[in-house]
Structure formats: C-alpha cells, structure tokens
Write a structure and sequence with these properties.
The chain is of the alpha/beta class. The protein has helices at residues 39-46, 94-97, 129-132, 142-146, 151-161, 178-188, 202-211, 224-231, 247-256, 277-280, 297-305, 324-332, 334-337; strands at residues 2-6, 12-16, 28-36, 62-69, 81-84, 123-126, 133-135, 170-174, 194-199, 215-218, 237-242, 257-265, 286-288, 315-320, 341-345. Helices cover 28% and strands 24% of the residues. It binds nicotinamide-adenine-dinucleotide and zinc ion (2 copies).
C-alpha cells in the first residue's frame, strides 16, 4: 500500500509501506476513505514531537471501512463504516473507566501517527477498535464526520466544557485556527452573550465571524483587554480560552478573564510560560489544562446528525490520497491559502 511516511524533521514522502495486519485480538484493519491533516502533524514535521521517529506513518484522524477484525472484537464488524478518532481507548484501565481516554494506561491515548503507524495511508491498524471507533451514521458526509476525529471534541471538551461556558457569558477565544474555531462553534451551543475572537490574521478573524464570533480583535493593531472591558463593565471575560500554544497568548488569556472567571488552556506549549500568581492569587480564577479525551464524540455526533453543528464548514480544500504533498503544502501555508481543514479522499 501507499502511506505518508515521516523521515525526520522536514522530511516526509507518499511511498510504499507494508499493509498493516492484525497484531492483537482487539485490532481492526480499516481501509481509509477520507483523512485530514492536523496542526500537530506540522509540529511533528518541525521536529517538536521527538517520540515520532523515522519511518512512522503520520495521521490521527480518518473515516474508513473495516476490512478485517481480530477475534476479540464484539461490536466492530467487517464492512462497518467507522470514524477513527485521534484518541484510542483500552476501555478498562483506571483512566478509561473515568472517561479520561486521553490518559489511557492500557496502551491507548494519542498513539496513532505518534507511537504507532497512523491514518495517512491506504490502510490503518486500529487497536482496541470496539472502544476507539464510532459507527458512521447513514446520510452524513464522511468529511463532516471526519471533523469529529480531533478538532471538534478538542475545542468542546478542553475549551468550552473545561471553561464551563454558561448562557449569557462573555467568552474570549485567543487563536482562531481550526481549534479556536471549534471552540467558538461549541460555545455557541450555550448561548453566550458575546464571543470575542482574537487572532493576528484577518483571514482567520473572518472565519471566526462565520463560525459565530460577534466581536473580532486583531492582536497586531487592537487592544483585546480594552474591547472586552467595554463589553463587561470593566470586569473581563467570564471564560477565556487559549487556542494558540505560545507564552504570550496564555498570558493574554489569563489577563482577559474576570475575577472568578475560567481560563481554559487548549494550546500545546513547547516553552516555559509565566503564571502571574502575584496578580492572580486574589482573583478567584480557575485555570484548566487538558489533552482531548473524545468522551463527547457521541454527543457531537448527535448534534451533527440533527444539523445543530455544521462541521462541513471547516473543510476548505479537497484532494485525493496521492496528493498528500500538495495537501500538506496548502495546509502549512494557511495564511495565504485560507486553509482550515483539508480532506483527502480515496478516488
Ligand atoms: N489540548 C489538546 O488536546 C489539543 C488538541 C489538538 C490541538 N491542540 C493545540 O491547539 C493549538 C491550536 O491548534 P490549531 O490547529 O488551531 O493551530 P493553528 O496554528 O492553525 O492556529 C493558531 C492560530 O493562532 C493565531 N495566533 C498565533 N499567534 C497569535 C497571537 N500572538 N495572538 C493571537 N493569535 C495568534 C494564528 O494566527 C492562528 O490562526 C495548537 O497549539 C495545537 O497544538 C491541542
Ligand atoms: Zn490533531
Ligand atoms: Zn485505557
């Protein structure tokens, strides 16, 4: 088969690779029908994720058709159409029993395209397939379901739910990439009074408006704190969501929250960040961090089926599987290309 193989920082190729086989009784082999690229894949290509080594097939999001199943599987069957999620779950360890699948101790967590071969291939081996895949309902496009593999549960769980967005809240979202936009889409479900999107790129702020932000702030020329102060009688945002992953935006997200407010960090941080406890100790704030667990995937799937979530809105570019090089290029130059999510499909 062909697969997108990582060969060290800056190097990848769509090349021949061995077709995966069942290694454990709870594995399924899934034929990949639609797959996408994540900002995290770009981090890997920069060399930011050293656990990913030469020869690893990238990718942790896919929709596909089950081609083979291990004898230990009870629900997943050959021919099933399934969503392959970024988080794999053994289903029985302490953290899986507490629905913290991202922290799975039994061999799951974020493993696809990280510790084992991933989804950017014609076929993928999915461990613990009963508890790590979701049946694709009839009548919903693959590319919509695909948005549930990572960005929508991440924005919803780590941003909106950790931040405890309530009706009437003023919500600040720092960073309007796919993750920030997913947080905006999820926050809307709770009828906040204002969603303020903050980014450096006007193209991303335009997208934020389409996704439901009613106030947009360009950090290069506008003062987010002053704009939010005006909306809140000087108090600050009820919930402030960080969706970038650099020190400056974490500090800004903290600064934008009101006393008693919530700061939900989503960004993956590679550098030390200052927490200004000398200012915060008196402000009663709650700061949360998190790796996505994907425990909300069934909820998000229902909302998608009932058209309460327009997941297809994320998809800006389409390619066939053999166009990975072009797709990565378009996705990596999002500022110029306007890319949010690119979808590669089996032709
Ligand atoms: N916690 C999790 O489980 C989880 C899961 C997936 C992704 N992530 C992380 O979420 C973050 C966002 O992901 P993404 O795919 O949307 O990334 P992205 O790079 O596409 O988007 C980031 C956005 O932040 C903006 N930005 C950069 N610097 C800024 C600044 N100083 N002020 C305001 N805006 C600024 C950029 O213009 C861009 O639009 C990343 O750090 C990613 O690794 C976390
Ligand atoms: Zn991802
Ligand atoms: Zn587990």
């Amino acid at each position: 088969m062909k697969a997108l193989v990582f060969h060290g920082p800056g190097q990848k190729a769509w090349e021949d690779a061995s077709k995966p086989t069942i290694l454990s009784d709870t594995d399924a082999i899934v034929r990949v029908d639609a797959v996408t690229i994540c900002g995290t894949d770009l981090h890997i290509l920069k060399g930011d994720v050293p656990a990913v080594t030469d020869g690893r097939i990238l990718g942790h999001e896919a929709v596909g058709t089950v081609e083979a199943v291990g004898v230990g599987l009870n629900t997943v069957k050959v021919g099933d159409r399934v969503l392959v999620s970024c988080i794999t779950s053994c289903g029985v360890c302490r953290f899986c029993r507490e629905r913290r699948y991202g922290q799975c101790l039994g061999g799951g967590g974020w493993i696809l395209g990280h510790k084992i071969d991933g989804t950017q291939a014609e076929y993928v081996r999915v461990p613990f397939a009963d508890t790590s895949t979701y049946q694709v309902p009839a009548g919903v496009a693959d590319e919509q379901i695909l948005m549930l593999a990572d960005i929508l549960p991440t924005g919803y769980e780590v941003g909106v739910l950790n931040g405890t967005v309530q009706p009437g809240d003023v919500v600040a979202v720092v960073g309007a990439g796919p993750i920030g936009l997913a947080a905006i889409m999820g926050a809307r479900l709770f009828s906040p009074s204002h969603i303020v999107a903050i980014d450096l790129a006007d193209s991303r702020l335009d997208a934020a408006k389409q996704f439901g932000a009613d106030v947009v702030v360009n950090n290069t020329r506008e003062d987010a704190a002053a704009i939010i102060a005006e909306l809140t009688g000087g108090l600050g945002a009820d919930v402030s969501i960080e969706a970038v992953g650099v020190p400056a935006t974490f500090e800004q997200a903290v600064q934008l929250a009101r006393p008693g407010g919530h700061i939900a960090n989503i960004g993956v941080h590679g550098e030390s960040v200052t927490l200004h406890l000398e200012e915060l100790w008196i402000r009663d704030v709650t700061i949360t961090t998190g790796l996505v667990d994907t425990y909300t995937t069934p909820t998000l799937l229902r909302l998608l089926i009932n058209r309460q979530l327009d997941a297809g809105r994320f998809v800006t570019h389409h390619f066939s599987l053999d166009q990975f090089e072009e797709a990565y290029d378009v996705f990596a130059r999002a500022g110029e290309t306007g890319a949010l999510k690119v979808v590669l499909s089996r032709s």
